[in-house]
Amino acid sequence: MPKSRAQVREEFAKNGWSISGWAKQRRYSPNMVIAILADDETNPRIKCLRGEAHNIAVELKLKDGVLSPQSGRSLAAA
């Protein structure tokens, strides 16, 4: 079952993880991860339908799905 953005932010805080550190470790744009987590839950600006936003949402467990290949990022590193 997908998590809410608030649940993901709470998990980061509980574990002492920084959003930027998580993003850099996975070769994502920290600004994109922050924007996704700060977005409105019921009517998000960033829909996370494809590309980097989709992969971020899947890895954060905001949505069910599989990682899509994208240039500049190896799925083996994930």
What does this structure look like?
The protein is mainly α. It is built from 4 helices and no strands. The longest helix has 11 residues. The protein starts with a helix and ends in a 19-residue tail after the last helix. The model has no long low-confidence stretch (mean pLDDT 91).
Question: Helices and strands in order, then pairings?
Answer:
Layout: H1 5-15, H2 19-25, H3 30-38, H4 51-59
Helix pairs in contact: 2-3
Shape: globular
Q: What is the percentage of strand-forming residues? A: under 5%
- Helix/sheet category: mainly alpha
Largest sheet: none
* Poorly predicted spans: none
What attributes characterize this protein structure?
single chain, about 80 residues, mainly alpha, 4 helices, about 45% helix, about 0% strand
Summed up:
The chain is built from four helices and no strands.
